[in-house]
Specification:
alpha/beta; 11 helices; elongated
Length: 396
């Protein structure tokens, strides 16, 4: 991935070097013309411009190398993740993970129940190869996984690993650790699961400004820190979240994902006070369905700029576990008439529905307005992050 922060100074240095080189050449020509008529000319202006052009040339060379190394580094890391996923598939086919074993007993890297998973001693995000793993509680089945660093967007660290999905097949899972994760080595953080709408993609790759928006909100102090988890959307359908809206039973309790994240990172215990769901655009119905179907697992859900099957999702809320109450934010830009209409229809359908759905706390946000759609989406993501951070327990 080529970083804009490197490309911008690269272009500035190149343009500055060209301008200085042209100035030095013009001064040199003036000196030659003066020498022809035996006139004395000042050489310092030419030397200063030539020196400046050389400095710019060195800067351009260095920035070009850094940009190229960054791009190739990402390609290499992505290849490593693909090789690891393929190895997991081969192991599954060879019988390493018997189909009769429950998901919570599956190991990608097994750790003894009373021992800390690899990397737990440091308690900080690894900037090189692997994440810090938290100690597994005594008697619990820990599912620790090696997460490799793939970048540092939003001021934090982005890591990736292959984790078994509900179908028993490995899928990529990306985890974004906020800057506070490395600074506060003893703190445990709430978790927000980001849902993707494109098969084979994670939400951070599908909508890159999600991580940037959360990071910007953290840097300004508008929200409390939390960990973002982005599992790869399943294959088999072109629109996974539309399938979820049409068949609410497809919202499964992804126990393997929760166990793996809890064993590999310093998180608060999985539950409604510490885990939430987030979906942007195509992923919004997935987040809404997760929050409505399992408010006993996800204490809050935020859906941004989505289109919803109101009847199906209202039925999802009606079939939620008794004694639980969903908290849902439906956000859309002020100029997104279709998105706001879909959000209000879903809010009405949920309130009029039977069972726990009628008790759900559903908010509709319609106050975001900006010059471009990208800026509006960034502000909507910040708003969703603030809602989730305020609803979930703070890091402790």
């Amino acid at each position: 991935m080529v970083r804009p922060l490197l490309v911008i100074p690269l272009l500035a240095a190149a343009l500055g070097g060209i301008w200085l080189a042209r100035g030095a050449l013009q001064r040199w020509r003036d000196l030659r013309a003066a020498a022809t008529y035996e006139l004395a000319g000042e050489r310092w202006p030419m030397l200063v411009r030539a020196g400046g052009a050389m400095v710019c040339g060195v800067c351009v060379t260095a920035l070009t190398l850094l940009t190229a190394l960054g791009a190739f580094g990402v390609l290499s890391r992505d290849r490593t993740g693909a090789d690891r996923a393929q190895s997991a598939v081969d192991a599954a086919e060879a019988g390493a993970w018997p189909g009769s074993v429950p998901e919570t007993a599956v190991r990608q890297q097994a750790a003894p129940p009373t021992a800390a998973a690899p990397g737990a001693a440091s308690g900080a995000a690894s900037g090189a190869a692997t994440s810090a793993a938290s100690a597994a509680p005594a008697g619990a089945s820990a599912v620790a996984s090696r997460f490799d660093s793939v970048g540092h967007p939003g001021g934090g660290e982005l890591l990736q690993s292959a984790v078994l999905g509900p179908d028993g097949k490995p899928r990529n899972v990306r985890v974004w650790l906020p800057p506070q994760y490395a600074k506060e080595s003893n703190a445990r953080f709430p978790v927000v699961v980001m849902h993707a709408a494109t098969p084979g993609k994670t939400a951070d790759a599908e909508v890159p400004d999600v991580v940037e928006g959360v990071g910007a909100a953290l840097q300004t102090g508008r929200i409390r820190p939390f960990i973002l988890v982005a599992p790869e959307a399943p294959n088999g359908t072109a629109h996974p979240c539309e399938l979820v809206a049409a068949a609410p039973a497809a919202v499964a309790d992804d126990a393997t994902l929760r166990d793996t994240i809890a064993a590999s990172f310093r998180t608060l215990p999985p539950g409604p006070t510490s885990w939430g769901a987030l979906g942007v655009e195509g992923g919004a119905p997935c987040a809404a369905a997760a929050g409505l179907a399992r408010p006993d697992l996800y204490g809050a859900a935020a859906a941004v700029s989505g289109r919803y099957d109101a009847a199906a999702l209202a039925q999802t809320g009606a079939e939620a576990p008794a004694g639980s109450s969903a908290k849902l934010l439906l956000a859309a830009a002020k100029g997104d008439a279709a998105g706001l209409d879909a959000a209000r229809k879903l809010q009405t359908a949920i309130k009029a529905g039977p069972g726990p759905a009628a008790k759900a706390e559903v908010r509709v946000s319609d106050n975001v307005q900006d010059y471009t759609a990208d800026r509006e989406r960034l502000r909507l993501v910040r708003q969703a992050a603030q809602f989730l951070a305020e609803t979930l327990t703070r890091a402790s």
